[in-house]
Design goal:
Strand order of the largest sheet: 8-9-11-10-12-13
Distance between the termini: 50 Å
Strand content: 25-35%
Helix content: 25-40%
Structural class: alpha+beta
Mean pLDDT: 88
Largest sheet: 6 strands, antiparallel
Length: 264
């Protein structure tokens, strides 16, 4: 069994509850649960070598290992792992239960979004279910812990400009970019830098956009960016931007007037 054949075989086995991605440079296949991104990384080269001497038995052992790793994570402990609890922003249409019917712990946020909670596992995270809560680790306490932890995450942003409108982008590749929308201290700091209307966007999980809208072209540019990011994001959240003022987020629908000009 050659490398590409092995990859296709593994991908075909994990094609319902799971998502796969392939790092061609390092020849690593990642298998993760769609529900919470918890997963494992599998180097293909050693498996190919074993398969050449032991046949499909070696491949079946890898599949068994992956399945066991996923099941082993089913029971989690929140007590003692408070530093690893983070909020996760999802669309309001995101399923409130797992594939197995277990209710997920969540808190309402805006008309477009909801806050779920995750236990970070280093190479992914596990969404917290209601059955993981206890008298000590209630939903209210989980929310407080998660909001405090998100404030500790870096907030450096890259800046661009479209037709005189500054745009700021946060993409740190830690899986909690959209969660920074819950860091009100950071948003208030950005508000002091804004000269026009402040719009905030979380089109998908892995990016947050803050826009300083100073003219109509800025609104058009924000609308197009939100749609593009939402369409291409791995875990879409909302294509609507939020107007931010004095601590309040209000979803807005932008009616486009013209195609935004190219970035300058």
């Amino acid at each position: 069994m050659e490398r590409n054949e092995l990859r296709r075989y593994l991908e075909s086995h994990f094609n319902e509850e799971y998502r796969t991605s392939y790092d061609r440079e390092n020849e690593v296949l990642r298998v993760e649960r769609k529900s919470d991104r918890f997963g494992v990384n599998i180097r293909l080269a050693p498996i190919v070598a074993k398969a050449k001497t032991r046949g499909t038995v070696a491949v079946d052992e890898v599949i068994e290992y992956i399945e066991s790793a996923m099941k082993a994570d089913d029971q989690i402990s929140l007590t003692g792992n408070e530093d690893a609890i983070y909020p996760v922003i999802r669309s309001n249409s995101f399923s409130k239960t797992t594939k197995n019917g277990e209710a997920l712990a969540f808190t309402p946020h805006t008309a477009e979004t909801a806050i779920f909670y995750a236990l970070d596992r280093g190479n992914g995270y596990r969404l917290i279910e209601e059955r993981h809560l206890s008298d000590e680790m209630t939903l209210d306490r989980i929310e407080r812990i998660a909001r405090e932890n998100v404030k500790k995450l870096p907030t450096e942003m890259k800046q661009d400009e479209v037709a005189g409108n500054p745009f700021y982008f946060l993409s740190t590749r830690d899986g909690y970019e959209a969660s920074r929308v819950l860091n009100d201290e950071f948003l208030r700091l950005m508000e002091r830098r804004i000269e026009g209307d402040m719009l905030v966007g979380v089109p998908h999980q892995d990016v947050m956009i803050v826009a300083d809208i100073r003219n109509d072209q800025g609104y058009d540019a924000m609308q197009q960016m939100m749609f593009d990011f939402f369409t291409n994001g791995r875990i879409p959240v909302t294509a609507l931007a939020f107007h931010y003022e004095t601590g309040e987020l209000e979803p807005i629908f932008i009616v486009g007037k013209k195609t935004p000009p190219s970035n300058t």
